[in-house]
Amino acid sequence: MSVLFIISNEHGHFYSKQKDWTDGKQRGNLFRARHYDEALNLLLELNARDISLRAQVLEAEPDKRGEPFVTISDIPLPISERRFIESSNEQVPNEQDNQTLDGAIEQTTEN
After folding, report:
1. Are strands 21-22 and 14-15 parallel, antiparallel or unpaired?
2. Which domain holds residue 53?
3. 67-91: pLDDT as tens digits
4. Can you name the residues that pair with 16 across neighbouring β-strands?
5. What is the Cβ-side half-sphere exposure of residue 105, based on CA atoms within 13 angstroms?
6. CA distance 24 to 103
7. C-alpha 58: how far from its chain's center?
């Protein structure tokens, strides 16, 4: 049976095809390579962009559809990555809401 090579960081998150980190719930979106050197090259590129990154190449067994078996991370994704993954139904506050919030903060600081 063949193996796949994936990239995981120190939080147990996995690098995805969308070039960001994910918790592993959507296995079909995970980056995968058939050869170790392909995954290692990508890991070196990621480390060149972010020298504080602590990641490694892992072997993963594929299921029948070719998706890697992974353990879903318990550590939440950073907010910027969570917004990308969440559904598009999320309502983003508009500028008027921000002004109302700013006004409420100014009133509390004045009192």
Report:
1. antiparallel
2. 4-110
3. 898 888 888 887 655 555 555 445 5
4. 30
5. 6
6. 40
7. 16
